[in-house]
Amino acid sequence: MALNKESNGFTFGFAIVLVVVLGVILASLAEGLKPRKLGNIRVKKQIDILSAMMDVEKEGIDRANAEAEFTKYVDLNKAVILNNLGEQVSTGEEAFEVDIKKEYRDKNLAESDKKFPLFKAQDKSGLSRFIIPVVGKGLWGPIWGYICLEEDMRTILGVSFDHKTETPGLGAEINKPFFMDRWKSSMISDDNGDFKKYEVVKDNSGSSDPSKVDGITGGTITSKGVEEMVNRSLKIYSNYFKNLNSK
Description:
By secondary structure, this protein is an alpha+beta fold. It has helices at residues 8-51, 66-73, 94-97, 100-105, 177-180, 220-246, and strands at residues 80-82, 88-91, 116-122, 128-137, 142-149, 156-163, 199-201, 212-214.
């Protein structure tokens, strides 16, 4: 029996077969490219972590050599995972696999079940560095970054902030050097090791107070998002450092 190519049945059948074939092809491509995608995510994360500690462009660190350079400075065997009270619950490479963005978005995950990684590194001079991941919410979407502390576990050596959908020229400026440099040399805790809360302010009113950081003109909501992100995260880590120093 000859097929009637002009019938509705043939048209629908052909469309269904085409969709199935294309779906199989796309699924196969996605599965085949998955290792490469995961590899790219890992490299991006390594570069972001190092960016809080050094100028990766100046050091010539890129996607091609990120893995090798990362292992020079960061020993994942010494990484730790904290709970929301700043207590150590685990150590080792597992810390690198923690997706803090996913945990932050998961409304069904109790605060007591969330994991807070801490990466321990050494710079070229052999000085200890402590790198803290942070995540929060800006005006239009997620914001995140890393904060690197000096050997005293108090002084901020550098930060690396980024975003997904903040407004260009306004909130998107959180990943620009002029804003990130404002956090350098400030201290996350007092002489007793107690956390010192940060305040992101406007109109350059924070220039004389180390606990106040000048925000971004026109990007108030995103700036305040960074403030909330930093304070919520650093309070947990400062508890860990205080307990560590008291031993």
